[in-house]
Amino acid sequence: MSTPLPGVPEPEYTPLGEWDTQLEVGGEVFPFCEDEDANITGVGHQDRAAFADAINRYDGECGITYDGSEDLWTAEDIDHDWVAFDAGSDELMHRCTTDTPGAFRVTTLWGQR
Q1: Which of 6, 72, 90, 111 is the 20 to 30 A CA-CA neighbour of 48?
Q2: How far is CA 109 from CA 1, 27, 41, in A?
Q3: Residue 42 and residue 40: Cα distance in Å, rounded?
Q4: Which domain holds residue 98?
């Protein structure tokens, strides 16, 4: 498990286990993970502007640019959602309501990258 970042919620635990919520690139630890479809997910409802800024830095570290700009994402692109892991998985998740068993808060940039 990664070392928690200041101001980032502690990882939440679900009935299905522990989800590692940070990744490290270029010596910087980012408060989210990225899936195979380039969706970004961070545990807890994080500050939208700080989350977007972290994604822009992450993209820069990874050499990703959009129309020549490294600062594409803004707070308006970031969502606060509730998710639960799919049955039998500690990786695949789906959006859900707050009263879904195992539901937890996430901050996301899904379907835009």
Answers
A1: 90
A2: 22, 22, 7
A3: 7
A4: 21-109
Count CB-CB contacts under 10 A for residue 31: 26
| Per-residue model confidence as pLDDT tens digits over 52-110 | 999 999 998 998 877 766 678 999 999 999 999 888 877 788 999 999 988 999 999 99
User: Most distant CA pair in the chain: distance in Å?
Assistant: 43
Within a domain: 26: yes
Within a domain: 6: no
Asked if the structure places residue 8 within a domain, the reply is no
> Is the pTM above the cut of 0.85?
no
DSSP state of 50: H
Q: What b/e sequence results for 42-73 when a residue is b if at least 16 CB atoms lie within 10 Å of its CB, and e otherwise? A: bbbebebeebbebbbbbbeeeeeeeeeeeebb
Amino acid at 66: Y
Amino acid at residue number 61: E
